[in-house]
């Protein structure tokens, strides 16, 4: 895809990205900025303050474990951008414990950040998105929400399964208002975290991909935002699976 100014297919769009301090979150903010959008990037302190984001990105701190913060974030983003066109619910927390090891706090954390927060953000975003010309919500999910994941991610998979179903329900509710809502399952990303894994585990992750490689974060960010733009006008109520897994 063209990286020249002519490739600014999000020109004028107002975009909110949660979890902007993470690998995919940063890539989403960078790509949206590159494509001409105005972006609010959100995360918790100190992560969001230290994140390497475009100078033009507006940083808003928020703790998505707090229901009031979820709603405040949306209203502040809309105020600072003059409305909203695209909302990307990317923030998530990963609890690595087997079902037998899970504690109540683990289940609470997965529920609060991975499911309740996106629900509240979608709810608060409605009043702004219905006034937009080509509005869309993207909920970043995981195949763990379909298959249960590789190992010790039962709480995470549970919350992502809930978000996949919630996405479908909200797509039906918001569709008559012209708002598209879809989920997207990203592949394993070529990141510092992946490179820090033991060689055997890195090879296992890579071998599960039918393309025999990990995805670059910017590749996933570009596709995500393209699907959220007017170019993806028919994408709604579905999970877009980018895992390239050879089932």
Based on secondary structure, the structural category is: alpha/beta
Spatial order of the strands forming the largest sheet: 3-2-1-4-5-6-7
Low-confidence stretches: 1-5
Helix content: 40-55%
Radius of gyration: 17 Å
- Total count of strands: 7
Q: SSE string, helix = H, strand = E?
A: EHEHEHEHEHHEHHHE
- Under CATH at level 1, the class stands as Alpha Beta
Give the overall shape, derived from the CA principal axes.
globular
Query: How far from one another are the termini?
Result: 28 Å
CATH topology call: Rossmann fold
Please give a handful of descriptors for the protein shown.
disordered N terminus, alpha/beta, 247 residues, Rossmann fold, 7-stranded parallel beta sheet, 43% helix, globular
3D structure, described in words:
With 247 residues, this protein is α/β, with parallel strands linked by helices. The chain has one domain: NAD(P)-binding Rossmann-like Domain (Rossmann fold, 3-Layer(aba) Sandwich), CATH 3.40.50.720. Helices cover 43% and strands 13% of the residues. The chain contains nine helices and seven strands, in the order βαβαβαβαβααβαααβ. It has helices spanning 23-34, 47-50, 67-81, 104-129, 144-147, 154-174, 192-195, 199-207, 217-228; strands at 14-17, 38-43, 58-61, 86-89, 136-140, 180-185, 239-241. The protein has a seven-stranded parallel sheet, sandwiched between helices. α1 links the parallel β1 (14-17) and β2 (38-43). It is globular, with a radius of gyration of 17 Å.
Sequence-ordered SSE layout with sheet pairings:
Blueprint: E1 14-17, H1 23-34, E2 38-43, H2 47-50, E3 58-61, H3 67-81, E4 86-89, H4 104-129, E5 136-140, H5 144-147, H6 154-174, E6 180-185, H7 192-195, H8 199-207, H9 217-228, E7 239-241
Parallel strand pairs: 1-2, 1-4, 2-3, 4-5, 5-6, 6-7
Helix pairs in contact: 1-9, 3-4, 4-6
